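Hi R.,

As promised on Friday, here is the backbone we talked about, encoded as structure tokens. Could you run it through your design pipeline when you get a chance and send me back a sequence?
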């Protein structure tokens, strides 16, 4: 039953309307490097309380550690994307090694869940990365707002770095790897809701903006037309 539910949720991303409400502002919050145990659980609890979904770019080796959290991410309506298996830089990797990183990660995902986005560690977009993404039908998802939350434990500074730069259609890079990052993310969600933004997954944002995703192409935001 859980596998059927996971498949239904993965497929449900395809049913998002092509356009959002007139004048509505959207933003996609994305979380790299997880799942990470209690921090991801804390984040999922907070997102559920707020009725908000996000995109999680997961590492294969962490999925192997926390398959239950990966299952929960899908079951609660969030989007999963690839972040490699080992989190090693792909700058000098061969196409064969990059493809293996993706294949090893896909093998650990819930049945029926097939990501459409790939974010290589550090946002590396070498020719090999682009070529593998194109062959595998994946769009490369980078970002337009980066508060560098991994480099500080100052929650207020993380929040300021995002809220001071945010615009309609932005993709925000965050991590669910520390208490400060998770608390900042939830505070950011609260502030965005107060400002009239609707946080959505990256896939939802692309569809709401009528973007025709192309495999191998890099996307950093989906602004209004």
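Update: got your reply. Pasting your designed sequence below so it's all in one thread:
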């Amino acid at each position: 039953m859980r596998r059927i539910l996971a498949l239904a949720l993965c497929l449900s991303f395809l049913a998002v309307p092509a356009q959002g409400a007139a004048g509505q502002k959207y933003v996609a919050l994305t979380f790299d490097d997880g799942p990470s145990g209690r921090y991801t659980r804390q984040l999922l609890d907070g997102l559920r309380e707020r009725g908000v979904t996000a995109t999680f770019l997961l590492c294969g080796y962490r999925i192997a550690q926390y398959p239950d959290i990966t299952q929960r991410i899908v079951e609660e309506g969030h989007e999963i994307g690839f972040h490699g298996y080992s989190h090693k830089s792909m700058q000098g990797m061969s196409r064969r090694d990059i493809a293996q990183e993706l294949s090893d990660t896909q093998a650990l995902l819930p049945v029926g869940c097939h990501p459409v986005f790939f974010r290589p560690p550090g946002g590396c977009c070498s020719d090999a990365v682009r070529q593998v993404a194109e062959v595998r039908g994946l769009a490369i998802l980078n970002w337009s707002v980066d508060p560098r939350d991994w480099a500080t434990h100052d929650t207020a500074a993380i929040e300021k770095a995002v809220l001071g730069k945010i615009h309609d259609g932005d993709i925000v890079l965050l991590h669910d790897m520390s208490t400060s990052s998770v608390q900042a993310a939830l505070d950011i969600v609260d502030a965005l809701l107060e400002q009239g933004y609707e946080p959505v997954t990256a896939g939802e944002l692309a569809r709401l903006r009528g973007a025709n995703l192309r495999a191998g192409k890099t996307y950093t935001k989906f602004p209004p037309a």
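One thing I noticed while checking it: Residues 179-194 form the longest helix (16 residues).

Thanks again,
M.
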